[in-house]
Amino acid sequence: MSGRKVLFVIDMQVDFVTGALANEEARKITGRIVDKVKAYQEAGDFVFFTRDTHGENYMETQEGRLLPVPHCAEGTEGWQIVDELKGFANKDNTLDKPSFGSLELPKWVYKKTDGNFDEMEFCGVCTDICVISNAMIMKAAFPEIRLTVDGSCCAGVTPESHQTALDAMAACQMNIL
What pTM was computed for the model? Predict the structure, then answer.
């Protein structure tokens, strides 16, 4: 594979930034992610978004039992990409995922790019849940492609869990900025 870079913007949704699971750290990174998305687009690189997507039965799922806070219910305001990034996301570059990580992501991205990428970068929320899950899936699917996580454009549930996740990804041969 050779060609362009891919930026993954993970779960920058209302519920994680200002909604049900609001996080001050997530609010702080939003402007930096907007700048990064613009830079990727100006360079002609790929930008993809993921959306945490739950149904009416969320509270009956394992995640719902362990995190009993309804969030990111499909079609609700909390499920939407935050306003600052909404104009960059569309149905062609956004993957809805029912869990932390998406096993569909590698095939979906390969199809969307015709395999024309040789680098990928991750940003978004939560570093310690969805960012690490999707980064690990992509590292397993594309072990020879350079994978970077921009820690300054990610936010974890806590600053400590954010750092723990960055350390884990570094141990798995991901480049951490």
Answer: 0.92
Tell me how crowded residue 56 is: count the other CB atoms within 10 A of its CB: 9
- Residues in a beta bridge with 48: 8
Q: Is 114 left (phi over 0), alpha (psi -120 to 50) or beta?
A: left
Instruction: Compute φ and ψ for 7, nearest 5 degrees.
Output: -110, 130
CB 11 within 8 A of CB 52: yes
Bridge partner list, 7: 47, 121
Residue 47 forms beta bridges with which residues?
7
Averages of pLDDT over runs of 10 residues in the chain (177 residues) are 85 92 92 98 96 83 74 90 96 93 94 92 95 97 96 95 96 95
Q: Which domains does the chain have, with CATH numbers?
A: 4-176 (3.40.50.850)
State the amino acid at position 54 in one-letter form. Answer: H
HSE at residue 142, side-chain half, CA atoms within 13 A, is 24
Q: What angle do CA 52, 131, 176 make, to 5 degrees?
A: 160
For residue 52, report the phi and psi dihedrals to the nearest 5 degrees: -60, 130
Instruction: Determine which helix (DSSP H) or strand (DSSP E) holds 111, and give its type and residue range.
Output: helix 105-113
- Three-class HEC string of 14-70: HHHHCCCCCCHHHHHHHHHHHHHHHHHHHCCCEEEEEEECECCCHHHCHHHHHCCCC
